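Feature request, filed as a ticket because there's no other form

It would be nice if the structure record came with a short human-readable summary line next to the tokens. Right now we just get the raw output. Example of a typical job, pasted below so the devs can see what we mean:
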Amino acid sequence: MRESPYVRSLPYQLPAVLGLAVVLGVTGPFGTYEHIDLGRRIAYFAIIGGLSWLQIVTLAAWFGRIEPIDRWPVARRMALVGVLAAIPSTFEVIVVQSWLGRPIPLRAAPYIFPENALLTAAIAVVFGLFVEQRLRAAADAERARVAALPQPPSLPEADSAPAAAPDFLRRIPPALGRDLIALEMEDHYLRIHTALGSDLVLMRLRDALAELGPDRGRQVHRSWWVAEGAVASVDRTAGRLVLILRNGLQVPVSKTYRDSVREAGWLEV
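Raw output as currently delivered:
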């Protein structure tokens, strides 16, 4: 779940979680006003809200690594996240309310779950839409930055020189140079590996491959693309196929792409 946009959003969400806990603590919904005093109500909603929030973030980050689910509309995906997060949250409600308020028997879980799932799903959807809006804003800023870069000089038609570099190469931070070695998918982000280092850009791997075209390298794994000429050796230990790149990076080859890698002659290195 490294570099997940949901995990990255944690600092931005914390004030909202604490603020919601205070509001709910003061208003005392779900019967808590009559049975729990103000201080314990705020503590109750802070604990339950914090745990539910972490469960939502964890599930959202995990689903972000499952490509078929990650392609769902954000509201649908986050609604599922909220319903699943409500399962442990229901038992947390029973435990925390029994501790701070009046005891609740475990057999009440089936009655608590529907109301809890509805609330958790609504919060998860709002959270997902917030993250998606931030991603769209960052992506728009990145597109504007790339569009503002100077275009390479055009060549005379008679010239047989190669065409201008794909737009993707203009996305690489200048400090990394242009010796592209590999691309690694990290949720909504893409880690660019060059001979000089690596950095993250907000982009999907499939969009980067569309910009690069088919001649500059090959996809070798759902999360990896390797450039032509980047493979230094091959490791076949433990029944796994791993490409060792020029910069020492080790890239796994999945069964789906093994034939393509073999056809390219990369396994003969």
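Something like this underneath would help us a lot:
The longest strand covers residues 180-186.
The beta strands are 180-186, 189-194, 197-202, 217-221, 224-227, 231-235, 242-245, 250-252.
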